[in-house]
Structure formats: structure tokens, C-alpha cells
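Review form for a predicted model. The reviewer records the input and the model, then writes brief findings.
Reviewer: anonymous (R2)
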Amino acid sequence: MRLNHFISSTGLCSRRKADELIEQKKVKVNGEIALVGRSINPDLDDVEVNGKFLEKKKAHVYIALNKPTGITCTTERHIEGNIIDFVNHSERIFPIGRLDKDSEGLILLTSDGSIVNEVLREENNHQKDYIVTVHKKITPSFLQGMEKGVRIFNPVKKTYTITKRCKVDQINDRTFKITLSQGLNRQIRRMCAHFGYRVVKLQRIRIMHITLKGLPVGRWRNLTEEEVRKLKS
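Model under review:
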């Protein structure tokens, strides 16, 4: 790796500024004054800038959790049952989006703040799949109404919102699968309530290309390199 690239990767400054520091003889590699254009091995070489050793920036963390019910998607550690204490990761991470306390299933957590807006931005139409069980038998009119869009109150904007059209597939007489491309607060529960249905179980099984496959409730795993690549793209 080029020395200026390494200095920049630690967050100290830009590559151009790093070259200026090298030219000013303020940078040493293994105790010797470095020259512009030098390459280093970040795992073997010691780099000093103005007498301070630089550490290689840690790689970001990207994990998928199968959240159980009762866990709250918040970084507020004083809240009992918060997701950060539940995961108990060694790195400082935070959830991407939310999954309400009464729901279970897939949620992503990361230390990379740069991807959060990309994942959550509504206009990107990222799809999410949910399996929903309600308290009474499902009717064709209910399924059709859910698909066409439902008028629900938006407490943030203090206005009513029509949810986007979505795909709904019946699984049995009280369970269906729904695919959403938006994420309003408690959206599915409020959509069901509009038609007189109460949700008794809600599980998210997919976010974009990432699924719950093989991940037990309460467990988490690191995303694969391919999953991270697609997430960033």
C-alpha cells in the first residue's frame, strides 16, 4: 500500500495532505524519514506522523441478527432489552432501521455509518419480506386491500398516508407473506388494523438480498463479502 494511502485510511488527513507531510519530513517509517511515493506493509511497518504512531483502521462490522421478540432496536443502553447489549459485540455497532419490540426476524447492524442512508432511503425501493399471522381467517378482500395500499395516519407529518402497493401471498387461513419497499413505523400492524385484523406474530425474513436462512432466533452472523459488496452497491 502507498504510504499516503495508508495515512489517509487512518482518517488523519487526505492523501494530498499526507504527501505534504511526507515532503515536510514529518513522516517516519520504522524510525526513518520517509520519501514521497514509498510503499509499506500496514501489518509489518510502523508509521509515525509528527512523532505519533498511526494504527491501521479497523475493518467495518456488518452483521445479520435474527432478533427475538422483546428486544428493542435502540442504541440507548439504559433501556432494558436494548439490541446493543443483546448482541454484545466487541465493536461499536448500531442497527440499520428498526424492527419493533413485538416482532422478530432479520435486522442488520453495522459500524459503517456511510451505508445506512443508502439502505433506508425509501426512493431506492429496497424490498423486505415478512411472514405475518393474524387473529382470524384471511379473506380475499383483505389481501386485495393490503396489496392496493392502505390509508394510515402518519404521526410524524400529522397527515394520512397511502402505503405503497405491495405483494401479498396467502400461506394458510391466517398467515400471509408480504413484500414491502417502504418502512413506516409499525406499518404492517397498522395496515392490518385498518381491516379489523390483529397481528399475533410478525417475522421479517429478508432485507434486499440478505435472508434469515440457517440463522436461529437470537443468533447473529457476519455478512459475507459478497453480501457486503451488494449492500454497498
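Findings: Residues 20 and 113 are 29 Å apart (CA to CA).
Further findings: The two ends are 24 Å apart (CA to CA).
Recommendation: see findings above.
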